[in-house]
Amino acid sequence: MPKLIVDQSEFLDVVETLASVDRYALDTEFHRERTYYPQVALVQIAWANTTVLIDPLAVNLEPLARVLDGPGLCIVHAGVQDLEVLDLACGTIPAQLFDTQIAAGFLGVASGSLATLLDRFLDIHLTKGDRLTDWLRRPLTNDQLVYAAGDVDHLLELTSTLEAQLEAMSRLGWAQEESELLRGKPRNRRPPAEAVTRIKEARSLKGQALRVATAVATWREIRAATLDIPIRQVLPDIAVVAAAQQRPNSRAGLSKLRGLDGRHLKGSAAEEIVEAIKVGLAAPDPPATSARIPDLPRELRPVVTLVTAWISQLARDHKLDPALLATRADVESLLRDDPECRLLEGWRSDLVGAPIRHLVGGEAAVAFDGGGRLVLEQRSNKALL
């Protein structure tokens, strides 16, 4: 049975030990159904032959920052949400990171679950548990503790196996580079002014209606974050769009909007929504964040389909996860000369970015090799017909 840490002094002893290890595995359990920010419910950590489960409802997790900021390598699986949780609970994220899901992608496993990787690489079969269990309910059951420990028990061994195979294929550096990029990704620090872009019904709005929707959605995002409640509890999407279209200037007018009722107008909410509508009406131009991504030049549109097919072939040839190699959005970004395109840097630049540039420049061509495979080859400049 894994050890559950519910005492602060005992937790500090764990931190002291972890501060001196060269690598450790980490996972978190959290809920966010009733809050704006994720509520951490359990932290699982394994090192050497030890696994502990830390109860954040009983201890203050902030001292864990010492470990996260230290030189030890933190090993996670599909860790993007774990990083958000750690940032909120500890004020920092691991300084050194290795994500096993990312690493497996360089061995041809597309978005593999932990159970899939353990089965494939270590012949270990995880015990199935209740995926929708309530991790915030106390006391935690023995089954919950065993299930939670399984998320980190074998991560160190899995990492060693993945590293060996990646090293043999000269791809370990790629996986390390990609794990480092994960550290730099946004962690739910969504700019409030961009909130309107996530409302499907608002995408067809223009002019004044779009400006009002932007202002109301911005207010909703800020209020949800301030109160730490889901944005749908502040205002449903349909109410944001209705406010943009009808633009009421009073509480009585707001109460007539579709999707909005008294629970949404408690306290100062009604006055603040009316003020947000006024802000939108007074805004001279739509925010820059709502500007459309420029369309591809017409002559380059056929290139996207051609290149995407070649990338799929390239991924199969190199036993890579196609989504890890390059997505359709990546290709379009490159063709638009987007300086932020990820195909312009690192291993992707050599493997994908440069060849695509040769193709678009007329120096290369995509062809069948006679065996059903697509290949990129030097262009002959000799028309067949």
Question: Can you lay out the helices and strands and say which pair or pack?
Answer:
Blueprint: E1 3-5, H1 8-18, E2 23-31, E3 39-47, E4 50-54, H2 65-68, E5 73-76, H3 80-90, E6 97-99, H4 100-105, H5 114-122, H6 142-149, H7 155-168, H8 172-183, H9 207-227, H10 231-234, H11 237-246, H12 251-254, H13 269-282, H14 301-318, H15 322-325, H16 328-335, H17 346-360, E7 364-368, E8 374-378
Helix pairs in contact: 5-7, 9-11, 9-13, 14-16
Question: If you had to describe this structure to a student in words, what would you say it looks like?
Answer:
- The chain has 385 residues and is an alpha/beta fold.
- It has 3 domains: 3-183, Nucleotidyltransferase, domain 5; 192-290, Orthogonal Bundle (DNA polymerase, domain 1), CATH 1.10.150.80; 298-378, HRDC domain (DNA polymerase, domain 1).
- The chain has helices spanning 8-18, 65-68, 80-90, 100-105, 114-122, 142-149, 155-168, 172-183, 207-227, 231-234, 237-246, 251-254, 269-282, 301-318, 322-325, 328-335, 346-360, and strands spanning 3-5, 23-31, 39-47, 50-54, 73-76, 97-99, 364-368, 374-378.
- The strands form 2 sheets. A 6-stranded mixed β-sheet has the order 1-4-3-2-5-6. It has a two-stranded antiparallel ribbon with strand order 7-8.
- A hairpin with a 2-residue loop joins strand 3 and strand 4 (50-54).
- Helix 5 (114-122) crosses helix 7 (155-168), helix 9 (207-227) packs antiparallel against helix 11 and helix 14 (301-318) crosses helix 16.
- The longest helix is centred in the middle third of the chain and has 21 residues, at 207-227.
- The mean pLDDT is 92.
